[in-house]
Amino acid sequence: MNFKPFLSIDNQPISITQALAYLRATGDLQPFLLKIIRQHILETELQTQEKLEIDSTIIEQAVIDFRFENQLNDPERFQEWLKAQGISYAEFRHQIIARLKIEKLKAEVTAPKLEEYFKANKALLDQIILSRIVVAAKDFALSLRSQILEDSNRFESLAQEHSLTDDRLVKGIMGPISLGQIPELIRESVATATPGELIGPLEIDGRYTLLRVEQFLPVFLEGSLKQQLQEQLFDQWLQEKAQKMTIKMHVE
């Protein structure tokens, strides 16, 4: 049967049907298709929204920043990099423009919802610093608790001496960690605690844990957290647009 090969491996032609079958066999077909759909949505938005146009000075500065950050200021080194990437300067510049437009689109899409989304999730985004001692037996954990209540300064030395986790090397200190990333049992226990308070022992995965709250660290809508939430909202927006589309595969 004649077909136009999608690619060839050691001169053996691989059809698009066979390539998709390989992806299906490895469980990678759905992620592959989702990437195509996502890129299609982005390309459509970039082509149809005139308000996403980028000023030429911003583009040139982005090119300069990219070359500086990747140590490509030297013209010869930059040309070698372009050759290694298999792209021309025009294609490179087009990629820069597309990235800037996507960032602008992302900001416009997420701006109306970002503050509300942050407030709704802040309780889980706020961070905490904990110290812990993890031991195998409940009776031993209770004994350690009694010693710490008698002398709170002993927590660190007892953690170093008895804790079964690697953080014993740093006197049991954990964190900072987002409250949403810790097990619900711990989160419920520390939610109303005050710095310096001893909690436990709590049974977690067959072991017994003593926790001391060191510090609460409230987060703010800025920096890397703001970017993270923008990414989450933007992904939701892309998924919602994809769900409204009629998508069919035309492969024999």
Written account of the structure:
By secondary structure, the protein is of the alpha+beta class. The chain has 2 domains: about 1-120 and about 220-250, no CATH class; about 125-215, Chitinase A, domain 3 (Roll), CATH 3.10.50. It has 9 helices and 6 strands; from the N terminus they run ββαααααβααβαββα. It has helices at about 15-25, 30-50, 55-70, 75-85, 90-125, 140-150, 155-160, 185-190, 225-245; strands at about 5-10, 10-15, 125-135, 175-180, 200-205, 205-215. Helix 5 crosses helix 9. It is elongated, with a radius of gyration of 27 Å. The protein starts with 6 loop residues before the first strand and ends in a 9-residue tail after the last helix.
Outline the fold blueprint.
Blueprint: E1 7-9, E2 12-14, H1 16-26, H2 29-48, H3 56-69, H4 75-85, H5 89-125, E3 127-135, H6 138-150, H7 155-162, E4 173-178, H8 184-190, E5 198-204, E6 207-217, H9 223-243
Antiparallel strand pairs: 1-2, 3-4, 3-6, 5-6
Helix pairs in contact: 5-9
Computed structural class: alpha+beta
Q: How many DSSP H or I helices?
A: 9
Q: For the CA atoms, what is the radius of gyration? A: 27 Å
N-C termini distance: 12 Å
Major sheet size, sense and barrel closure: 4 strands, antiparallel
- Lateral strand order in the biggest sheet: 4-3-6-5
Strand content: 15-25%
Residue-averaged pLDDT: 89
Q: Give the overall shape, derived from the CA principal axes.
A: elongated
Q: Helix-strand pattern, N to C?
A: EEHHHHHEHHEHEEH
Number of strands: 6
**Poorly predicted runs:** none
